[in-house]
Design brief:
two-stranded antiparallel sheet; All trans-polyprenyl-diphosphate synthase PDSS1; 2 strands; metal ion binding; 334 residues; Isoprenoid_synthase_dom_sf; 1% strand; 18 helices; isoprene biosynthesis
């Protein structure tokens, strides 16, 4: 176990400051886990350079400490909980490697993608390798219930990817389809790592659900803001081209909200913006509509729900930091 801190908060510190010691060597430890005797280890370590936002492990550590305080009046971080935080970043990164293969993307996080450097086949194997190392790691220290919870994540990522490949003709079904895909591809990882942190602390079912619902709502809000930023941020800020989702044929929340004002988006959605001029036209119609405002409003609703559930925990610095995270999710610019 890692030593806890005696803390009587005077003011809410920045979330990253609270877990600075826990996160200090996280990427270094991930790189150690990926050690092997062949070329694959160098490819696998490529994104674990400490330059990512590390939002998922940050939330996992904060949730672990918050629940440990709630249950045991002790904000110690269990070694198994830190492993789960590492696993969150590793699974997320493996999914990015696979996404870039599917999307034939040349860049990721502002630099050349793994597949553009090493080729599609090696990138697929690299993503698989990171996942296999991840689950070998957590199986060493986590109880069966925690391993089962973490096992839901790759299943959901795969299911979400399949959902993303399809479109719904019915407009009402289309938004539900989008929200389900958003949970599976983005929010599931955060939700289940939060739940796993609670399991490892000895939480009962109701407290596990608090952790899960916090992660689910923050995760959905995070993706909604990400979809909004695809329409309003520059490529230099985001590290990927603007309107990237439209170019991939994806109708995200801003487009789906805009359909109500501009029905001419419907045929574009069904043909996945493949005809010449579709991407530019859709981009312009979204900006003319209130789709961006509605997307932000929905993200805010999910953040409010996250605050509601996490507020049932005993007050602590980490609990307050989890509330602060919702504001950072809503107001991020990249």
């Amino acid at each position: 176990m890692q030593a806890g801190r005696l803390a009587e908060p005077l003011a809410a510190p920045h979330p990253a400051t609270l877990v600075e010691e826990d996160m200090r060597h996280l990427f270094e430890d991930i790189r150690k886990e990926l050690e092997s005797q062949f070329e694959l280890q160098q490819i696998a370590k490529y994104y674990f350079d400490g330059q990512g936002k590390a939002v998922r492990p940050l939330i996992a550590v904060l949730m672990s400490r918050a629940i440990n305080t709630h249950l045991h009046d002790e904000d110690r971080l269990l070694d198994s909980q830190r492993d789960v935080a590492m696993a969150a970043e590793m699974i997320h990164t493996a999914s990015l490697v696979h996404d870039d293969v599917l999307d034939v993307s040349d860049t990721r996080r502002g630099k050349a993608s793994v597949n553009s450097i090493h080729g599609q086949r090696k990138a697929v194997i690299t993503g698989d390798f990171i996942l296999s190392v991840t689950y070998a790691m957590i199986s060493r220290r986590c109880c069966p219930d925690a391993i089962i919870a973490m096992g839901e994540i790759p299943k959901n990522l795969i299911h979400g990817e399949f959902l993303q490949m399809g479109s719904k003709e019915n407009e009402n079904e289309r938004f539900a389809h989008y929200l389900k895909k958003t949970f599976l591809k983005t929010a599931s990882l955060i939700a289940y790592t939060c739940k796993t942190a609670a399991i490892l602390s000895g939480a009962d079912d109701s407290l596990q659900e608090v952790a899960f619902q916090y992660g689910r709502n923050v995760g959905i809000a995070f993706q909604l803001v990400d979809d909004l930023l695809d329409f309003v941020s520059s490529s230099s800020t985001m590290g990927k081209p603007a309107a990237a989702d439209l170019k991939l044929g994806l109708a995200t929340a801003p487009v789906l909200f805009a359909v109500g004002q501009f029905p001419e988006l419907n045929p574009m959605i069904m043909r996945r913006f493949q005809e010449p001029g579709d991407v530019q036209k859709a981009f312009e119609l979204v900006h003319k509509s209130d789709g961006l405002e509605q997307t932000q409003f929905l993200a805010r609703q999910h953040c409010q729900e996250a605050i509601k559930v996490i507020s049932t925990l005993k007050p602590s610095e980490e609990q307050k930091a989890l509330i602060t995270i919702t504001d950072k999710v809503l107001n991020r610019i990249k």
